[in-house]
Design a protein that fits this description.
single chain; alpha+beta; Fumarylacetoacetate hydrolase, domain 2; six-stranded mixed sheet; four-stranded antiparallel sheet; 4 helices; 15 strands; binds magnesium ion
């Protein structure tokens, strides 16, 4: 199982990090060792002093495919959740400055806390999904899938030109604006609409 993550998929977030708005999706990957599920805690690692949260809608791939046409892409995912693309922003800034790959900043152990999945068929309109993050009971981030630069179907089509998608793979579809630092003892709760899917403590 692999985790494909889309960068810069919301104009307001690209601007907050002073990145150009892309004309093609930017993607990178995390290994399966990045996952945290079932309400397990996140232990703040010693190699970074600036781990940040990015709240993202996450698709689960339900069928193997490569070179998937955009008009058929909806057949390749059947569940959705919300996850955190945890990022060691200090390490990422250094990588960016030197033009190096991002793995140490993005792919480290437990860098992908993930909520419970719900069936796509339960969603009224996948082009208008509200999702949000609370830290210690206060909302810090809110997004809607209507603000994505690249749609779910376009992302699936684009990524599968380069990388075969397999049953059980996950796609993190990018964060809206409002990313920020996490701290020891923080309590994260992430929602799709009013349904809490993710609950995470930082230790
Ligand atoms: Mg992200």
């Amino acid at each position: 199982m692999k985790i494909v993550c889309i960068g810069r998929n919301y104009v307001d977030h690209a601007r907050e990090l002073k990145n150009p708005v892309p004309s093609k999706p930017v993607f990178f990957m995390k290994p399966d060792t990045a996952l945290i599920q079932k309400h397990n805690p996140f232990f703040y690692p010693g190699f970074s002093a600036d781990i940040q949260y990015e709240t993202e809608l996450v698709l689960k791939i339900c069928k193997n495919g490569r070179h998937i046409e955009e008009r058929f892409a909806h057949k390749y995912y059947d569940q959705i959740s919300v996850g955190l693309d945890l990022t060691a922003r200090d390490l990422q800034s250094e990588c960016k400055k030197k033009g190096l790959p991002w793995e140490i900043a993005k792919a480290f152990d437990n860098s992908a806390p993930l909520g419970e999945f719900i069936e796509i068929s339960e969603i009224e309109d996948i082009n208008h999904i509200n999702f949000s993050l609370k830290i210690n009971g206060e909302e810090v981030q809110r997004g809607n899938s209507c603000d994505m630069i690249f749609s779910f179907d376009y992302i699936i089509s684009y990524v599968s030109q380069f990388v075969t998608l397999k049953l059980g793979d996950l796609i993190f579809t990018g964060t809206p604006a409002g990313v920020g630092p996490i701290k020891i003892n923080d309590h994260f709760e992430a929602y799709i609409e009013n349904q809490k899917l993710l609950d995470l403590k930082v230790k």
